[in-house]
Amino acid sequence: MNRRNYFLACFVFFIVACSDQESKKFEYRFNEDRMIVRNGEEEHPPYTDGAEILEDNAVPPSTEGISVEEGKLRFETMEAYSNVMKTLINQPYSELDAWEDALGFTSIRRFNENFLANEEETEDMVDELEFDRGRIQDPAFETVLSVNNEIIIEDKGYSFDYTNMDDRVLTIWNYENPDEVIDIIMLDAQKNGANGSAGCGIYLNGLTGKRVSEVHKNFTSKKRITGKKGSSAWFIFASVWASVKYSEKNWLGIWRGKKTNLALQLDQWHFLTYENSIAPGVSMECITNIEKKGNEKKLKHTFDSSTNQGYFGVCEFGRIHHWKESEGYNNDVHTETWQ
Q1: Are 329 and 48 within 8 A, CB to CB?
Q2: What number of other Cβ atoms are within 10 A of residue 184's Cβ?
Q3: Exposed/middle/buried for 60, CB within 10 Å: 0-12, 13-18, 19+?
Q4: Contact (CB, 8 A) for 209 and 192
Q5: Distance between CA 165 and CA 145 in Å, rounded?
């Protein structure tokens, strides 16, 4: 190859490589081929300008392949279930409510929300922050479970008991004969961890396990922001997510959520360089500048989800900021590693 053609080939390769990198700049956290380890870190100021906006799911929630039987959703096939879950992820709460109405179904999510909305202010009133800790964190999965935390897929029923969130139990039973128990699975028996020695990414054994970080910031003794990030798996569903909630203490001294303008941002405040464990010596940047805003009591975003695999290649140290817009970015709280 002569020198002219060599440089032309290099130029074409450079353009194609840059174009491909640009088109995949937000795929790093979902790509199993990019298992990475932390190699070092360098402090940078937060990037708050020009953030990519995380939108709600634009695909209308699907009702195909679903029936309602004795207050429970039944999915004809596992494929139908997986397809529906994809359309429920990151839907506004109003869309989830409308989807339930169309099916003539009431989920445990809506049951919980109605309970909180209609609860009387007495000394027996529940602390909403504490109540939230005992709930399924992903609204999409909470939406497909009945008020008794059950769902039917093909010829199997799945009943979830998470009275104790650190000792969750799944009972699988025969749809044709509900008294016949097929299996009982302790969802937290195998603790999830990083993928091998990579130290980056989340591996959920058999779609079980969870990790949640929770932080608070009080603006006054009666006003608080709560930021959460985590991963949670329920055997037939797993997700990686973050949320921000604003709460105020009522006259009884009990924390209750209040609707306001909220924001969360996945931002490389700690700008890290990682070494690709598949190709040692090749460093890669784990960067992002994406945010979500909304007028909600609780703002949430699911970064990745699955019904059939348990590896999520998220940055180990991707700091997430959670704040109330009227208080400003400087009054945020932030969660660090995916615990």
Answers
A1: yes
A2: 12
A3: exposed
A4: yes
A5: 16
Q: Which residue has the tokens 């299996």?
A: 183
Q: How far is CA 83 from the centre of its chain?
A: 17
* Residue 172, token pair as written in the block: 């699988």
Residues 96, 208: Cα–Cα separation, whole Å: 25
* pTM passes above 0.85: no
Q: Would you tell me how many other CB atoms lie within 10 Å of the CB of residue 166?
A: 7
Summarize pLDDT for 210-230 with one digit per residue, the tens: 778 888 888 889 999 998 988
Nearest to 322 by CA among 272, 271, 270, 261: 261
Tokens 């009591």, residue located = 297
Find the mean pLDDT for residues 91-117.
95
For residue 298, the one-letter residue type is K
Write the single-letter amino acid at 31.
N
Query: Coil, strand, or helix at residue 205?
Result: helix
**pLDDT for position 306:** 87
